[in-house]
Amino acid sequence: MQSVNSIKSAYIKEMLNNGVRSGRGFMDYREISILTGIIPNAEGSAEVNLGSTKVLAGVKLDLDEPMPDKPNEGNLVISAELLPLASADYDTGPPSPEAIELARVVDRGIRAAGIIDTESLFIEEGKVWSVFVDIYIMNYDGNLFDASTLAAVSALKTTRMPKYEDNNVIREGKLGKLKTKGIVTSCTYAKIGKSIVLDPDGDEESVMETRLTIANDDTYIRAMQKGLSGSFTQHEIEELVDTTFEKSKSLRSIINKLSD
Q1: What are the angstrom distances between the C-alpha of 174 and each of 58, 161, 163?
Q2: What does pTM read for this prediction?
Q3: Where are the domains of the chain?
Q4: Are strands 53-64 and 127-139 parallel, antiparallel or unpaired?
Q5: Dist CA 184 CA 181 (whole Å)
Q6: Which CATH class is domain 4-258?
Q7: At residue 157, does pLDDT exceed 60?
Q8: 222-241 pLDDT, tens per residue?
Protein backbone atom coordinates (compact mmCIF):
# COMPACT_ATOMS: atom_id res chain seq x y z
CA MET A 1 0.00 0.00 0.00
CA GLN A 2 1.39 3.41 -0.94
CA SER A 3 2.16 5.83 1.88
CA VAL A 4 0.43 9.22 2.09
CA ASN A 5 3.74 10.92 1.25
CA SER A 6 4.29 8.85 -1.89
CA ILE A 7 0.71 9.49 -3.01
CA LYS A 8 1.13 13.23 -2.40
CA SER A 9 4.44 13.21 -4.24
CA ALA A 10 2.98 11.43 -7.24
CA TYR A 11 -0.01 13.81 -7.28
CA ILE A 12 2.14 16.96 -7.18
CA LYS A 13 4.48 15.70 -9.89
CA GLU A 14 1.61 14.63 -12.13
CA MET A 15 -0.13 18.00 -11.73
CA LEU A 16 3.05 19.94 -12.54
CA ASN A 17 3.85 17.65 -15.45
CA ASN A 18 0.43 18.55 -16.85
CA GLY A 19 1.17 22.24 -16.47
CA VAL A 20 -1.02 22.79 -13.42
CA ARG A 21 0.02 24.16 -10.03
CA SER A 22 -2.39 24.31 -7.13
CA GLY A 23 -3.74 27.83 -6.77
CA ARG A 24 -1.14 29.76 -8.80
CA GLY A 25 1.20 29.85 -11.76
CA PHE A 26 4.62 28.21 -11.84
CA MET A 27 6.37 31.58 -11.38
CA ASP A 28 3.93 33.18 -8.94
CA TYR A 29 4.48 33.97 -5.27
CA ARG A 30 1.93 33.25 -2.61
CA GLU A 31 0.41 36.27 -0.87
CA ILE A 32 3.03 38.35 0.96
CA SER A 33 2.44 40.65 3.93
CA ILE A 34 5.00 42.48 6.07
CA LEU A 35 4.50 44.16 9.43
CA THR A 36 7.28 46.21 11.05
CA GLY A 37 7.93 47.54 14.53
CA ILE A 38 6.25 44.65 16.31
CA ILE A 39 8.99 44.04 18.91
CA PRO A 40 9.01 47.14 21.15
CA ASN A 41 12.43 46.56 22.71
CA ALA A 42 14.23 45.90 19.45
CA GLU A 43 15.82 48.64 17.35
CA GLY A 44 14.02 47.16 14.36
CA SER A 45 11.71 44.24 13.68
CA ALA A 46 9.57 42.75 10.95
CA GLU A 47 7.15 39.87 10.55
CA VAL A 48 6.73 38.34 7.12
CA ASN A 49 3.87 36.11 6.09
CA LEU A 50 4.54 34.28 2.84
CA GLY A 51 1.48 32.13 2.37
CA SER A 52 1.41 30.13 5.60
CA THR A 53 5.12 30.56 6.24
CA LYS A 54 5.69 33.06 9.04
CA VAL A 55 9.10 34.57 9.86
CA LEU A 56 10.04 37.11 12.52
CA ALA A 57 13.25 39.16 12.43
CA GLY A 58 14.58 41.39 15.18
CA VAL A 59 17.50 43.85 15.08
CA LYS A 60 19.56 44.91 18.07
CA LEU A 61 22.63 47.18 18.17
CA ASP A 62 25.23 46.80 20.90
CA LEU A 63 28.66 48.26 21.61
CA ASP A 64 31.43 45.97 20.46
CA GLU A 65 35.02 45.76 19.31
CA PRO A 66 35.80 45.90 15.57
CA MET A 67 37.20 42.95 13.70
CA PRO A 68 41.02 43.08 13.57
CA ASP A 69 41.08 43.37 9.77
CA LYS A 70 38.39 46.10 9.73
CA PRO A 71 39.25 48.44 12.62
CA ASN A 72 37.09 51.31 11.31
CA GLU A 73 33.95 49.31 10.58
CA GLY A 74 31.13 47.87 12.64
CA ASN A 75 29.97 44.27 12.57
CA LEU A 76 27.00 42.41 11.16
CA VAL A 77 25.88 39.15 12.78
CA ILE A 78 22.90 37.20 11.43
CA SER A 79 21.50 34.10 13.12
CA ALA A 80 18.45 31.93 12.51
CA GLU A 81 16.43 29.68 14.77
CA LEU A 82 13.95 27.06 13.59
CA LEU A 83 11.49 27.03 16.46
CA PRO A 84 9.84 23.70 17.36
CA LEU A 85 6.44 25.40 17.28
CA ALA A 86 6.98 26.03 13.55
CA SER A 87 7.23 22.38 12.52
CA ALA A 88 7.28 18.92 14.06
CA ASP A 89 10.62 18.41 12.28
CA TYR A 90 12.36 21.13 14.32
CA ASP A 91 13.98 20.38 17.68
CA THR A 92 15.37 22.45 20.52
CA GLY A 93 19.12 22.61 21.04
CA PRO A 94 22.11 23.92 19.07
CA PRO A 95 21.49 25.42 15.62
CA SER A 96 20.73 22.73 13.05
CA PRO A 97 22.53 22.57 9.68
CA GLU A 98 19.35 23.94 8.10
CA ALA A 99 19.33 26.94 10.46
CA ILE A 100 23.01 27.61 9.83
CA GLU A 101 22.50 27.45 6.05
CA LEU A 102 19.50 29.78 6.28
CA ALA A 103 21.43 32.39 8.27
CA ARG A 104 24.41 32.20 5.91
CA VAL A 105 22.30 32.60 2.77
CA VAL A 106 20.51 35.65 4.18
CA ASP A 107 23.81 37.09 5.47
CA ARG A 108 25.55 36.57 2.13
CA GLY A 109 22.95 38.50 0.16
CA ILE A 110 22.80 41.42 2.61
CA ARG A 111 26.56 41.61 2.98
CA ALA A 112 27.34 41.30 -0.74
CA ALA A 113 24.84 44.03 -1.59
CA GLY A 114 26.33 46.37 1.01
CA ILE A 115 22.93 47.07 2.55
CA ILE A 116 24.53 48.27 5.79
CA ASP A 117 27.14 51.03 5.70
CA THR A 118 29.48 49.36 8.20
CA GLU A 119 31.79 52.40 8.28
CA SER A 120 28.94 54.45 9.73
CA LEU A 121 28.95 52.06 12.71
CA PHE A 122 32.40 53.24 13.82
CA ILE A 123 32.32 55.15 17.12
CA GLU A 124 35.93 55.62 18.17
CA GLU A 125 39.14 53.64 18.17
CA GLY A 126 38.41 50.16 19.45
CA LYS A 127 34.68 50.77 19.73
CA VAL A 128 31.97 50.16 17.13
CA TRP A 129 28.35 49.14 16.85
CA SER A 130 27.53 45.52 16.10
CA VAL A 131 24.24 44.90 14.32
CA PHE A 132 22.61 41.64 15.39
CA VAL A 133 19.82 40.29 13.20
CA ASP A 134 17.97 37.35 14.75
CA ILE A 135 15.59 35.39 12.51
CA TYR A 136 12.91 33.19 14.05
CA ILE A 137 10.82 30.73 12.04
CA MET A 138 7.35 30.88 13.58
CA ASN A 139 5.57 28.63 11.09
CA TYR A 140 6.99 26.52 8.27
CA ASP A 141 5.24 26.02 4.96
CA GLY A 142 8.16 26.23 2.55
CA ASN A 143 10.57 28.84 1.18
CA LEU A 144 12.26 30.08 4.34
CA PHE A 145 15.04 31.76 2.34
CA ASP A 146 12.91 34.38 0.61
CA ALA A 147 10.73 35.00 3.66
CA SER A 148 13.76 35.39 5.93
CA THR A 149 15.54 37.77 3.56
CA LEU A 150 12.39 39.89 3.33
CA ALA A 151 12.08 39.93 7.12
CA ALA A 152 15.74 40.75 7.77
CA VAL A 153 15.93 43.54 5.17
CA SER A 154 12.57 45.01 6.23
CA ALA A 155 13.72 45.07 9.86
CA LEU A 156 17.04 46.71 8.92
CA LYS A 157 15.41 49.35 6.71
CA THR A 158 13.19 50.44 9.61
CA THR A 159 15.81 50.18 12.36
CA ARG A 160 16.39 53.16 14.64
CA MET A 161 20.00 54.02 15.45
CA PRO A 162 20.81 54.34 19.16
CA LYS A 163 23.13 57.11 20.33
CA TYR A 164 26.36 56.85 22.26
CA GLU A 165 26.90 59.86 24.51
CA ASP A 166 29.11 60.25 27.59
CA ASN A 167 29.79 56.51 27.71
CA ASN A 168 26.05 55.78 27.70
CA VAL A 169 23.88 54.07 25.11
CA ILE A 170 20.67 55.97 24.49
CA ARG A 171 17.87 53.94 22.94
CA GLU A 172 14.93 56.27 23.56
CA GLY A 173 13.86 59.69 22.38
CA LYS A 174 14.45 61.16 18.95
CA LEU A 175 16.63 58.70 17.05
CA GLY A 176 17.68 58.58 13.42
CA LYS A 177 17.53 55.54 11.18
CA LEU A 178 20.28 53.01 10.69
CA LYS A 179 22.25 54.02 7.60
CA THR A 180 21.41 51.59 4.80
CA LYS A 181 21.52 51.65 1.03
CA GLY A 182 19.59 49.68 -1.54
CA ILE A 183 17.46 46.59 -1.07
CA VAL A 184 18.35 42.96 -1.63
CA THR A 185 15.74 40.23 -2.06
CA SER A 186 15.92 36.59 -3.07
CA CYS A 187 13.91 34.27 -5.29
CA THR A 188 13.92 30.56 -4.55
CA TYR A 189 13.08 27.91 -7.14
CA ALA A 190 12.37 24.21 -6.76
CA LYS A 191 12.83 21.60 -9.46
CA ILE A 192 10.27 18.82 -9.31
CA GLY A 193 10.61 16.29 -12.08
CA LYS A 194 10.98 18.38 -15.24
CA SER A 195 9.13 21.35 -13.77
CA ILE A 196 10.54 24.41 -12.00
CA VAL A 197 8.43 26.50 -9.64
CA LEU A 198 9.05 29.76 -7.78
CA ASP A 199 8.33 30.00 -4.04
CA PRO A 200 7.82 26.30 -3.26
CA ASP A 201 5.43 25.59 -0.40
CA GLY A 202 6.00 22.86 2.17
CA ASP A 203 4.46 20.08 0.09
CA GLU A 204 6.48 21.06 -2.96
CA GLU A 205 9.69 21.24 -0.95
CA SER A 206 9.04 17.73 0.37
CA VAL A 207 9.21 16.31 -3.18
CA MET A 208 11.71 18.63 -4.90
CA GLU A 209 14.93 17.19 -6.31
CA THR A 210 16.91 20.43 -6.09
CA ARG A 211 16.58 24.05 -5.05
CA LEU A 212 18.17 27.31 -6.21
CA THR A 213 18.08 30.63 -4.36
CA ILE A 214 19.18 33.78 -6.22
CA ALA A 215 19.68 37.03 -4.28
CA ASN A 216 19.86 40.34 -6.13
CA ASP A 217 19.43 44.08 -5.86
CA ASP A 218 18.22 46.25 -8.73
CA THR A 219 21.53 45.94 -10.57
CA TYR A 220 23.44 42.75 -9.79
CA ILE A 221 23.10 39.15 -8.72
CA ARG A 222 24.62 39.22 -5.24
CA ALA A 223 24.52 35.58 -4.16
CA MET A 224 23.35 32.14 -5.26
CA GLN A 225 22.80 28.98 -3.24
CA LYS A 226 21.92 25.53 -4.57
CA GLY A 227 20.51 22.82 -2.34
CA LEU A 228 20.01 19.05 -2.61
CA SER A 229 21.54 16.66 -5.10
CA GLY A 230 19.65 17.49 -8.29
CA SER A 231 20.84 19.91 -10.94
CA PHE A 232 19.83 22.81 -13.17
CA THR A 233 21.03 23.22 -16.73
CA GLN A 234 22.89 26.36 -17.76
CA HIS A 235 19.90 27.41 -19.85
CA GLU A 236 17.54 26.95 -16.89
CA ILE A 237 19.78 29.04 -14.64
CA GLU A 238 19.98 31.83 -17.23
CA GLU A 239 16.18 31.89 -17.47
CA LEU A 240 15.82 31.89 -13.68
CA VAL A 241 18.21 34.83 -13.39
CA ASP A 242 16.02 36.79 -15.80
CA THR A 243 12.91 35.80 -13.85
CA THR A 244 14.57 36.84 -10.59
CA PHE A 245 15.30 40.36 -11.84
CA GLU A 246 11.67 40.69 -12.93
CA LYS A 247 10.09 39.23 -9.78
CA SER A 248 12.37 41.15 -7.43
CA LYS A 249 10.87 44.44 -8.59
CA SER A 250 7.62 43.72 -6.77
CA LEU A 251 9.47 42.42 -3.70
CA ARG A 252 11.51 45.62 -3.44
CA SER A 253 8.39 47.74 -3.90
CA ILE A 254 6.80 46.07 -0.87
CA ILE A 255 9.84 46.94 1.28
CA ASN A 256 10.05 50.46 -0.13
CA LYS A 257 6.48 51.15 0.98
CA LEU A 258 7.43 50.27 4.58
CA SER A 259 9.85 53.18 4.87
CA ASP A 260 7.83 55.76 2.91
Answers
A1: 20, 10, 10
A2: 0.95
A3: 4-258
A4: antiparallel
A5: 10
A6: alpha beta
A7: yes
A8: 999 999 999 999 999 999 99
